[in-house]
Write a structure and sequence with these properties.
The protein is of the alpha+beta class. The chain has 16 helices and 19 strands. Strand 1 and strand 2 form a beta hairpin. The chain binds a DNA duplex through helix 11, strand 10, strand 11, strand 15 and strand 16.
Length: 451
DNA sequence: GCATGATCATGC
DNA sequence: GCATGATCATGC
């Protein structure tokens, strides 16, 4: 097709490594740098490798079967590297992909070998001064590939079931179907239903990319793997295997489990400590390779004797000023936390004698229609903060006019602070107790009853 | 009894 | 010192 001189892995990698350290403004020959999203990738493709960007089905270097991907990362305050975003691959053609196998799929055809080039994204530096700092040829390790194959099948099985419109990012572990379109309303036909579905693309989750960066690009961080024998993953999903290992403990009380492992703690994350022991791990469960790569978040749910869940579920707190600046829902912090995340619900049920019994583990992600409800809560929160929150001092504390539980069936906003002195600035300069989004306890109740 | 504001315990 | 996960407490 386009005929670049780079037809072997070796030639491609050598050329890629030559760009390391060169400011992008010196690479860009066509003034692409300021064109917005994906501009840096385009600069490398056009000006460094000398081929026209394409969105076709072939990999960028067809002879070598290599797809070029430029990916940004951010350094946390503690200097740790994390992916800035998911790595977006090709758009899923619902009308064709459902007839394929993983081996013949468009995803595998295009992305089985990737030239990954990374750069540090900095908000304080013009794009032209940024530089590519690493370039590697990436092939999925076997232990990831079994999971990715299953992810692919989960996505395509929904298409086959006429449920392409119900696909969501949180359905899968590493490979996900993220929304992609000129605007959020880009809709596509699907083969087994008349309902239009959002246009989506294969993508590697940000959590997965963070691990790729830390493990294969910048070093070789090793995390403990929960499923040590990869062959097990050919028969069962990761989630099934985890449940198989935890099921023998169903029915035991919290007190019994604590005694069993000699745990004496008043820590609020006691559930994770117990799960770690039940799985026989040396490191914390959430530090395991699979949890890190998939970004799975465990959440403890206590069901009362009467079947009610007392507490709503909190998320990380948000920054008032950042939230007020957010414009697109799908680029918001809340969306990018909630949509791709798979939650591991660890359910404890209160027995008639008041003891809490380990009932079961349930993997869950938010359905699309409920995510639309959360969007409303996000919009109202943002509007209220932009307009100026009303704060009223009462006998119960400082009341505000952010969305309450009664205002929406799925989510609300509430304080998430250490105490009343734990505040953050509003856009207008006033200080307010730190807040976060919560999933309503009544909503969680319905979700776990469904399964 | 619930909704909503307030707070706890720990790890990094 | 703060983020995180989790739960408490009381006015209505």
């Amino acid at each position: 097709m386009k005929g670049t001189p780079y037809t072997t892995e070796k030639a491609i990698l050598e050329r890629a490594q030559e760009v390391i350290g060169i400011p992008l403004k010196c690479v860009d020959k066509k003034g692409r740098l300021e064109t917005g999203k994906g501009a840096i990738g385009t600069v490398i493709e056009e000006s460094w490798f000398g081929y026209a960007p394409n969105s076709e089905t072939e990999p960028d270097f067809p002879e070598a079967g290599v797809e070029l991907k430029v990916t940004p990362y951010i350094r946390n305050r503690d200097d740790k590297i994390r992916a800035k975003e998911r790595l977006v691959c090709n758009i899923i053609n619902y009308m064709e992909e459902y007839t394929k196998t993983f081996e013949t799929s468009a995803f595998w055809h295009k992305c089985k070998k990737m030239l990954l080039m990374s750069y540090e994204h900095r908000y304080d530096i013009p794009k032209g001064d940024l530089t590519i700092d690493r370039a590697i040829l990436f092939k999925f390790p076997d232990e990831d590939l079994v999971i990715i194959e299953r992810d692919w099948k989960a996505i395509i099985d929904k298409v086959r079931a006429g449920k392409a419109h119900e696909i969501s990012e949180g359905d899968t572990m590493y490979l996900a179907a993220c929304t992609k379109g000129a605007d959020a309303s880009s809709m596509r036909k699907q083969p087994c239903s008349d309902i239009l579905a959002k246009q989506r693309a294969y993508s590697l989750k940000a959590a997965y990319m963070t691990q790729i960066l830390n493990k294969y690009i910048f070093g070789d961080v090793q995390n403990e793997r929960i499923i040590k024998d990869v062959r097990q993953l050919q028969r069962y999903s990761f989630e099934e295997l985890l449940i198989q290992r935890l099921a023998p403990f169903y029915g035991k009380t919290l007190t019994e489990l604590l005694a069993m492992y000699g745990i004496r703690t008043s820590a609020k994350n006691v559930t994770e400590i117990i799960l770690t022991k039940m799985l026989g791990l040396n490191e914390k469960m959430t530090k395991s390779e699979e949890f890190q790569k998939a970004g799975i978040i465990p959440k403890t749910i206590r069901v009362n004797r009467n079947g009610k869940i007392k507490e709503s579920m909190s998320f990380p707190k948000f920054d008032f000023i950042e939230l007020s600046k957010e414009e697109e829902w799908e680029e918001s912090g809340l969306y990018n936390y909630l949509a791709p995340t798979r939650f591991m619900f660890v359910i404890f049920k209160e027995r008639s004698d008041g003891a809490f019994v380990f009932d079961r583990v349930l993997f869950w992600n938010i359905p699309n229609e409920d995510l639309e409800e959360v969007k409303k809560v996000w919009e109202r929160t943002r509007e209220t903060i932009k307009r100026g929150v009303k704060l009223t001092v009462t006998a119960r504390g400082v009341e505000n006019d952010l969305p309450k539980k009664k205002d929406n069936p799925v989510a609300h906003v509430r304080p998430h602070a250490r105490d009343t002195s734990d505040t953050a600035p509003l856009p207008d300069g006033r200080m307010m107790a730190k807040q976060c989004f919560w999933l309503n306890n009544t909503y969680i109740e319905k979700q776990i009853k469904k399964k």
